[in-house]
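Field: COMPLEX_INPUT
Field: COMPONENT_COUNT = two
Field: RESIDUE_TOTAL = 780
Field: MODE = joint
Values follow.
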Amino acid sequence: MKLVCSRENLHNGVNIVQKAVSAKSTMPILQGILIEAGDTLKLTGNDLEIGIECVVESDIMEKGSVVVNAKMFGEIIRKLPDSDVSLDYNEESGIVVIKCGKSLFKIHAMSSEGFPALPEVKKENSFSVESSLLRDLIRQTIFAVGTDEFRAILTGCLIESKNNELNFVALDGFRIALRKHNLEGDIPDFSLVVPGKTLNEILKILQYTDCDIAIYNSKNQILFDAGNFKLVSRLLEGEFFNYRNAIPEDFETKITVDTKELLSSIERAYLISIEEQGRNYPVDFKLYNDTLMITSDTTKGSVKEELEVEMEGSDLEVSFNPLYFIEALRVIDDEKINIYFRSIGACTIKPTEGNSFVYMILPLLK
Amino acid sequence: MDRVILHSDLNNFYASVECLYNPELRDKPVAVCGSQSTRHGIVLAKNYHAKSAGVKTGEAIWEARNKCPGLVVVPPNYLLYLRFSMSARKIYEDYTNLVESFGIDENWLDVTESARLFGDGERIAFQIKERIKSELGITASIGVSYNKIFAKIGSDLKKPDAVTVITPENYKEKVWTLPVGDLLYVGRVTRRKLADIGILTIGDLAGASPKFLVRKLGKWGEMLWSFANGYDQTPVARTDYELPIKGIGNSLTTHRDLTTNEDVKILVYVLSDSVAERLRRHHFKGKAVQISIRDSKLSYIERQGQLDTYTCTCSEIAQKAYEIFLDSWDWSQNIRALGVRVTSLIPSDRHVQLSFLDDDRRLKRELLDRSIDKIRSRFGHYSVQRALLLKDNGLNANPVEENVIHPVAYHVGQ
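Field: COMPLEX_OUTPUT
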């Protein structure tokens, strides 16, 4: 195998596929990146949960394939001068020669034979979204996924399509994050649960790309195809929590409030309410006279914040873990939001117009 | 403006609470002592009768008995003391939110802002002292001053059941004449060092040059000098007193040996019931369940397991304990005594995060257990029983009240 490509392109490609390489794998080959020079240059990383392949622009002089240790190869490429890189693999010696400017590396490599191929995903249940939209859908739900390994299904995010409506849902028992988007075209109905880790990796990769992404899924796998790279992930098995019944329709008090102002107030109150020893001090919400008063009173001290709001319904007092509010408010792009409170039971945050998101948060009982 | 700081000290706290619960002890010399069997046989607290006979905190039981032949020795009941401590704190909190605990029986209160509502510091101190006497049945001595150090000295000046006010006008005659060892943080070693340089009273210390003190005592020197002059500015921090209780448990030696799984199951429920009730009563939840088994040949084993979450309900504790038992006993011997203990405790906060997953059931179980507590407190322990206990076989008991709690069930401190 012999090829030349620019350091920058190679570096970007390695960066992307490295997200699917597990540093802790017991099998050396899974700590590696597969470099395949065929008609094009293709890099692949695969830890058997997530697999990513990426096409890199290059001049191929001699076809072939090899596996190199991802960490070392990645570091070398990252630190090389910005110039053309040539890779030369001699199968007999088992050594890859990397040349760039006046640098010359000879590194030991592995045969590509044992490298697990990415699973085939049938092109069923396909739909296509812009990368910026996919980024938002993930970013605006992923923070609410569960961390409890005993409820593995909740460590993933539910992606469902029904009547051309696409829903992303994450929940951990104390809150629900729901994001809706209406798709154009004829989209089949489906429902699947993608591991939170997978979506986090996609989120990182998508920071650098702006393109359409085709998404396919079969029973056990999901494939994200952006043309120059593909990501395949295992799906989580099991029944997702029936979130629809958990989101209340009724409320006692409704307020309309400026998102950023509310976020800043709660972030300030949080400074007082965080406490060592895993103790949970609540922030208290008090609604009266078109005012939302946020207070917290702990061993560290106390804080009081007042916000002007538009208010409908009765006066009300209720307490929350402030972090749940902060994480939801941070990802809401709308300038104003509606919040529906109940004195005992969940509160919900919704847009002032449309139904593109619902964030539900359960209170703390005093 | 000067601050108004109170220091309240519950007099002979452990011994006073014991006398309250056992009125027949009231006129006898009483000492609360660690148990001899676990080699903690020293005097933890004593009442005034024992004190006047010369009994000192920290000395061995036999020493105390030598000085005071009629001395009544009782084991400590920390959970009871904790409850009184919390009740006293509730009274303090009626006057200010700034309450700082210093040990189980002492508290500082900053009542500067409360004056408009309740009168000056002295008035508040009298109100608190009277309320503690009438509501709790024990006495407190309270010092009133403009800093924490003098307030504490004030509470030591006159005991029991008294209020002492130390002002910027009178502190020289009240405080400066006292031996320097009465100052907070002046222990035996510091006192000796100070005596070497001719400082015997707090007034001597206040009059010394701070630079000289720093040379002799290090950084502390200046701190103590500022204490002695009443310059201390440390705020009253809102802190709770955390009793270092590691676990709550009950064990029972039965009238007859246990011979079947069913016997054990019944006893496990009896014990767990009592452990859970005490966890709830003292606002704890625990995560680790431990069982101890003593067989008919008197050999002893302990086994433990972890629950998924922190709990204070009988059924969760009992299920786990029984499960551990089934895993660890092969019935090669009959069982003479059985214990259930819950450790890894956390204070069960006033705040419960609601969840829409199956925790609902857990919350309901807890509410059910709390309702049973209420019924029992009105109609007696045996008014509500588990159906399992109908199979009784003479194993049912009420370990909470019927004096079969082994004192070793409390493991306090190191």
